[in-house]
Amino acid sequence: MVASENLRSAAHAAVDAHVESGMTVGLGSGSTASLAVRRIGELLSSGELEDVKGIPTSETTAQLAREVGIPLLDLSEGRLEITIDGADEISPELVLIKGHGGALLREKIVASAGGGLIVVADASKLVDSLGRDSLPVEVEPFGWESTLDALSSLNCEPRLRPLEADSEDPFVTDGGNYTVDCRFTSITDPASLEAEIKLTPGALECGLFVGLAQKAYVAHEDGTVVMQAPA
Predict the structure, then answer these.
(1) Residue 9 burial by CB count (10 A; 0-12/13-18/19+): exposed, middle or buried?
(2) Annotated catalytic residue, options 20, 59, 107, 157
(3) Which residues, in sequence order, are bridge partners of residue 38?
(4) Per-residue pLDDT reduced to its tens digit, 130-149
(5) Which of 42, 55, 172, 201 could serve as a FRET partner for 105 with CA atoms 20 to 30 Å apart?
(6) What is the pLDDT of residue 225?
(7) For residue range 30-44, what is the model confidence (pLDDT) as tens digits?
(8) C-alpha 43 chain-centroid distance
(9) Neighbours of 13 (CB within 10 A)
């Protein structure tokens, strides 16, 4: 309970510091991002914020945003000024791994659209070097077997993500794509690896977020620590 309250406080701190009336905000996906979405809804409901619109990164986030009273736009309808999202791993340089929740392609499109990315996470997401867990890659369903084989040439162990742990059916993203989870021994050069993966036919996007995060609001047991991206 304490940990969840600390994470909620970190999400509130990020929203309170960066979201202003009249803004269009990218709304991330996952349980941590939902705390920020709910906070924006609370501030709109109380009148502390006005005329804030959201661009969601998943259908689940869109549904939550409607429930809490955040008007939604498409990327073509507004100028994105900030995005608030969670992360699965955070390096000391604020390079991220995202995508374990299954929305990485839309998350990266929104995070790259402008305004900067603000991350909310708990301290367990901090790593000395990326690659503690798998790196998700969103892939085109057509010929996914060939894509998986090509990804294996990058010195990783790729595995098609199942719908459920014991299911033979693949997990399908909101965009109708598959996800391949790639296990690397370590990721020492995230930018180069990201480029290599995106040169792989069938690989639409990977979960390495390089140079996108501006700040991270990290929940620790004794409060929120704000990390700043290197200049």
Answers:
(1) middle
(2) 107
(3) none
(4) 999 999 999 999 999 999 99
(5) 42
(6) 95
(7) 999 999 999 999 999
(8) 23
(9) 18
The size of the chain, in residues, is 231
Burial class (CB in 10 A: 0-12, 13-18, 19+), 92: exposed
Q: How far is CA 119 from CA 127, 164, 179, in A?
A: 15, 27, 22
Query: How close are the terminal C-alpha atoms of the chain, in Å?
Result: 36
CA pair distance 205, 198, nearest whole angstrom? 6
Domains parsed from the chain with CATH numbers: 2-126+210-222 (3.40.50.1360), 135-205 (3.30.70.260)
Does the annotation mark 140 as catalytic?
Answer: no
Calpha distance 67→99 (Å, rounded): 24
d(CA 152, CA 136): 13
pLDDT tens-digit series, residues 101-135: 999 999 999 999 988 999 999 999 999 999 999 99
CA 48 to chain centre: 27
